[in-house]
Write a structure and sequence with these properties.
alpha+beta; 9-stranded mixed beta sheet; 9 strands
Length: about 300
């Protein structure tokens, strides 16, 4: 698993940047119409044997030179770890514990200030952040590597039993809706059972199933999901509710993608394939009849 940490320094010129290595692409920009990364959110995507997770809007106690709140962004990526496997067995429970802690922090404080904020503030001092951001990315390589190693250790500490890849529950907030057992759904963050269902869906993605699981802060209804990148597989969306939308919105099933509907209808595919075959046969029959009639004349 690769872990990346992004934040900003105190001087205005030290804008947001990654303190250590940076991800190969800013894949989260695809979701900019659906969530603001300066506010609490979570994005998770698994595709082609690789999972990617972003947790952003984690507030710091630090502010910049004009008093604006500073936040952290965590980006993680790795290979799926099926339940019971040994390879990257520690990654799956670590990411699940991290996501569960983040949901807990958001539930307890409207800005998401909590355990994760404290962990990241203790991990890197204001002076260290300023020094790393002020240097060229090719400089202070040892310090950057040490910070990344400390970050990985700190995140692993959130899961007290890494050898047990269980799904932690963010909060027990009531009996879940049956809709949360469907393949594609949207619900408010505080709807009964929504947080636990979200973590279960994230667990499936980390185990190798293709799909998406997102906590979005610019979404208020199922109609807003039309701007979501159309990817096949599982889909779970939580409405964060801190900016727009109702965090207690009941769970609602989302329709399957058109391609998935067609794929699930083999009879329709068979009929579609037969149409050109029948037309071709009819054309050949007409040609044969014309040739025979010509011979008779």
């Amino acid at each position: 698993m690769h872990v990346y940490l992004r934040t900003r320094g105190v001087p205005r010129k030290l804008d947001y940047g990654f303190l250590g290595a940076a991800p190969g692409s800013r894949w989260w920009d695809t979701y900019s119409e659906l969530t603001a990364t300066e506010r609490p959110c979570l994005l998770a995507v698994t595709s082609k044997g690789r999972w990617r997770v972003l947790i952003s809007g984690v507030p710091s106690t630090r502010t910049d030179s004009v008093g604006t709140l500073v936040y952290y962004t965590l980006v993680l990526d790795g290979s799926p770890s099926p339940a019971g496997s040994v390879g990257a067995w520690q990654d799956r429970p670590t990411v699940l514990a991290l996501a569960s802690r983040w949901l807990d922090d958001i539930a307890r404080h409207p800005e998401g200030r909590g355990v994760l904020s404290e962990l990241l503030d203790c991990l890197c001092s204001s002076a260290e952040v300023d020094r790393l951001l002020a240097a060229r990315h090719s400089e202070l390589t040892t310090e950057r590597a040490e910070l990344t190693a400390r970050l990985a250790t700190a995140l692993a500490s959130l899961n007290p039993a890494p050898s047990v890849p269980s799904v932690p529950s963010a909060q027990d907030n009531g009996a879940p809706s049956p809709v949360l057992l469907t393949e594609r759904w949207i619900a408010g963050r505080t709807a009964p059972g929504a947080d636990a269902a979200f973590l279960a869906r994230l667990s499936s993605l980390l185990s190798g199933e293709d799909g998406q699981a997102h906590l979005l802060n610019l979404v208020s209804s199922a109609e807003d999901i039309t701007a979501l990148p159309q990817k096949p597989g599982l889909l779970a969306v939580l409405i964060e509710g801190g900016m727009v939308g109702n965090p207690a919105m009941p769970a609602e099933a989302l329709p399957k993608l058109p391609s998935e509907v067609v794929a699930s209808a083999p009879k329709a595919r068979w009929r579609a394939a037969m149409v050109p075959t029948v037309l071709t046969a009819l054309i050949l029959l007409l040609v044969a009849l014309v040739l025979v009639a010509g011979n008779w004349t």
